[in-house]
């Protein structure tokens, strides 16, 4: 591809392209835009903001796998309509929405453009990334299906899917280079050899780490700070396997080649070292089963509230057996002002330290408080 230096010409071509596309869709010829995209207006710095567009038009190396010409993609249609509405409501975003969405023919093309511009750096050029990402997506039906089902953590997930295909093709150095860029840009480290299903949600996503031999099923939700790692004592297949519909809370650490059953919930801050039964809820460091889920896929409802009832029930049983074991947990708090029943429960819950969820039940005052009163 050759670089096009005339930015006004690029702006004119892009404007005409959008007008033609909308005219075909609506059956009515649309007027030429008269805003920043018009040839006579102030030049928009496409080459700096959207470097791919300043370097020519994408041409796939071979025939891609496409949907039939007469088929409609309701998801892509909805995305385009929303982009048009937002461009009218927020004119400052019109150029961004146009270059990222409205100037493209399909979801795959728009996604390749966005990812290429997000992952580029001085040595990984946007045009080269665009060609690679576009060809991978358009030739892989699995990715085409997944990009319409995945939810949050979207850019990092789709970048991983491209790297995963490259890894399986034997292009491991390029796949690892993409992994490095994904970690730098999105703060999420997913090894390209790991296997991840579809309908995935990475809520917030920051700090998520997925090891080389990890497997994540379909419809799995992971909060921020989740680690699917190895124990350091194993070789080969050494990372966790998450069943369909599992819900993994914030800052959970799962180590070793263990299985997390379908529909299981792991409460925030847990350290999981053993297999987790299907549809169970585990908590603690190390994690233990404290109850069972009524829902088939807790990852879809994201109902973390159930853990409070289960933790309260578990804490009551613990207190009934040996209430003296609770005081060391209470005394670990550094701030004595927090050592009251209500504030203690809130502080422990917010800190994502799972075992402190045991304190959500009614507790006696601390020994120091008993003496003071």
From TrEMBL:
* GO terms (BP aspect): cysteine biosynthetic process from serine
Q: Which domain of life is it from?
A: Eukaryota
Protein name listed in UniProt: serine O-acetyltransferase
Q: Which PANTHER family match?
A: SERINE ACETYLTRANSFERASE
Enzyme Commission no: 2.3.1.30
Q: Which UniProt keywords apply?
A: Acyltransferase, Amino-acid biosynthesis, Transferase
Q: Which pathway is it part of? A: Amino-acid biosynthesis; L-cysteine biosynthesis; L-cysteine from L-serine: step 1/2
Does the keyword Lipoprotein feature in the UniProt annotation? no
The top EC class is transferase
What does the entry list under GO cellular component?
Answer: cytoplasm
């Amino acid at each position: 591809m050759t670089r096009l230096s005339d930015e006004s010409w690029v702006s004119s071509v892009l404007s005409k392209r959008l007008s033609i596309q909308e005219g075909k869709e609506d059956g009515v010829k649309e007027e030429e835009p008269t805003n920043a995209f018009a040839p006579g207006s102030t030049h928009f710095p496409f080459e700096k903001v959207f470097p791919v567009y300043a370097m020519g038009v994408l041409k796939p190396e071979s025939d891609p796998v496409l949907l039939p010409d007469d088929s409609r993609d309701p998801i892509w249609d909805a995305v385009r309509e929303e982009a048009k509405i937002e461009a009218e409501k927020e004119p400052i975003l019109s150029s961004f929405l146009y270059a990222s969405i409205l100037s493209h023919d399909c979801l795959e093309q728009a996604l390749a453009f966005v990812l290429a511009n997000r992952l580029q750096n001085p040595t990984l050029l946007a045009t080269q990334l665009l060609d690679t990402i576009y060809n991978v997506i358009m030739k892989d039906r699995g990715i085409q299906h997944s990009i319409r089902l995945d939810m949050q953590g979207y850019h990092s997930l789709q970048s991983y899917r491209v790297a995963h295909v490259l890894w399986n093709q034997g292009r491991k150095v390029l796949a690892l280079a993409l992994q490095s860029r994904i970690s730098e840009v999105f703060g999420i480290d997913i090894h390209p050899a790991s296997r991840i299903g579809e309908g995935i949600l990475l809520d917030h996503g920051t700090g998520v780490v997925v090891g080389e031999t990890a497997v994540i099923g379909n419809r799995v939700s992971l909060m921020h700070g989740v680690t699917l790692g190895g124990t350091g004592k194993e070789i080969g297949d050494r990372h966790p396997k998450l069943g369909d519909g599992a819900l993994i809370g914030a800052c959970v650490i799962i180590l070793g080649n263990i299985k997390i059953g379908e529909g299981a919930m792991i409460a925030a801050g847990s350290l999981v070292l053993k297999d987790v039964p299907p549809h169970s809820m585990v908590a603690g460091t190390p994690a233990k089963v404290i109850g069972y889920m009524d829902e088939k896929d807790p990852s879809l409802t994201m109902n973390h509230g159930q853990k409070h009832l289960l933790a309260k029930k578990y804490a009551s049983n613990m207190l009934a057996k040996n209430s003296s074991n609770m005081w060391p947990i209470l005394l670990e708090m550094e701030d004595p002002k927090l050592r009251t029943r209500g504030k203690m429960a809130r502080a422990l819950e917010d800190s994502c330290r799972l075992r402190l969820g045991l304190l959500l039940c009614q507790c006696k005052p601390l020994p120091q408080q008993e003496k003071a009163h």
